[in-house]
Write a structure and sequence with these properties.
316 residues, alpha/beta, Rossmann fold, 2 domains, six-stranded mixed sheet, six-stranded parallel sheet, 12 helices, 12 strands, binds NADP nicotinamide-adenine-dinucleotide phosphate
């Protein structure tokens, strides 16, 4: 029997800020988790066993997660308002990921390195920003596909915001070489320059699209961070059949896109004998990392979050 979710005077506020924000999947995922925690239904046996805790039921956490559409010109006043009404934390999406940074008291080194914040929490009456996209991106590479990456080569298509988290994630995993491929020479150069004070620059090289034929045969991990192939243009791919034919058998093809699942890019790569990872798990895991920060606890119902998204997207 489903218990009614009761919002009371004690319910604490979480949310997502963006403009627009109505298409955000975060409320679906986070409210599924929060409903689970408030009614005290047990998380999966494996999660409870991993935690070593038996008392995970009846946590009695009382939170709700709301979408907040905030126009850029209202960002500062909205964040001041959030402090006034004791918002516990919030996710940040387009177009606020950079603009939020000057409004925060503290930004983690990871978020500073990426140059974008996607998660904010209230700590000691101050706003602290971080970026959980890296954690989301590396999660499947650290678990299901875990291996020694120190002799491996990553090739990343695109040099936008998500590519920054992917580069930082590949560096964290210890990749020997990280090649970023883009189509705009000036933006590529800016991307490269932005890492010049970071140890990441030692393993990072940027390339124009024409260089792909020589890079793809070296790739152990090939990541699509461009929006090419995203719904509704589901028949598009960032690579031609000819280009992807040179991907080594057994390489991992990782697409950050989660609709459709799989993308044309992943279908092409699988035909070449590659392992395919889609963007849904990254979405789930960046949310998991954020929820852990807000609730200040290591245990959150990951499977509930994954299933809520899959169901919402018609995949479950
Ligand atoms: P972004 O900042 O706009 O960057 C997009 C990049 O793709 C830019 O480098 C852009 O190049 C390049 N690009 C766009 N169209 C292209 C084309 N036709 N051919 C070649 N390159 C092209 O976007 P973003 O925030 O990084 O997001 C990128 C994708 O990742 C989106 O599909 C987004 O949904 C997905 N994403 C998924 C997750 C997840 O949790 N799974 C998280 C974040 C992002 P130019 O600079 O030349 O335009």
């Amino acid at each position: 029997m489903t218990k009614e979710r009761l919002i009371t005077g004690k319910t604490k506020l979480l949310g997502v800020i963006g403009h627009p924000v109505e298409h955000s999947l975060s409320p679906v995922m986070h409210n599924a988790a929060l409903a689970q925690l408030v009614v005290g239904v047990r998380v999966s046996v494996s999660e409870r066993e991993a935690s070593g805790r038996e008392d995970i039921a009846n946590l009695g956490l009382d939170y709700v997660y709301l979408p907040f559409p905030i126009a850029p010109e209202n960002l500062e006043v909205a964040i001041a308002g959030f402090a006034a009404i004791d918002v516990v934390g919030f996710s940040v999406t387009i177009p606020h990921k950079q603009a939020i940074m000057p409004l925060l008291s503290e930004i983690t080194p990871l978020a500073q390195a990426i140059g974008a914040v996607n998660t904010v929490s209230r700590q000691n009456n101050q706003w602290v920003g971080t970026n959980t996209d890296i954690e989301g991106f590396v999660a499947p590479l650290q678990t299901t596909y875990k291996q020694d990456w120190s002799q491996k080569v990553a090739v990343i298509l695109g040099n936008g915001g998500a590519a920054r988290a992917v580069v930082a994630g590949c560096h964290q995993l210890g990749f020997a070489k990280i090649h970023v491929v883009g189509r705009n020479v000036q933006r590529l150069q800016e991307f490269s320059n932005s890492w010049s004070n970071s140890p990441i620059s030692e393993n990072l090289q940027v390339h124009q699209w024409e260089e792909l034929p020589k890079l793809i045969p070296q790739a152990n991990l090939l990541v699509n961070t461009t929006p090419v192939g995203m719904y509704p243009k589901v028949n598009e791919s960032p690579l031609s059949g000819e280009e992807i034919a040179n991907l080594p058998k057994g390489a991992i093809a990782y697409d950050l896109i989660y609709i459709p699942k799989p993308t044309q890019f992943l279908k092409q790569a699988e035909k070449q004998g590659a392992i395919a990872i889609d963007g849904l798990e990254m979405l789930v895991q960046q949310g998991v990392a954020a929820l852990k920060i807000w609730l200040q606890q290591e245990i959150v119902p990951v499977e509930v979050m994954r299933q809520a998204l899959q169901k919402h997207l018609g995949l479950g």
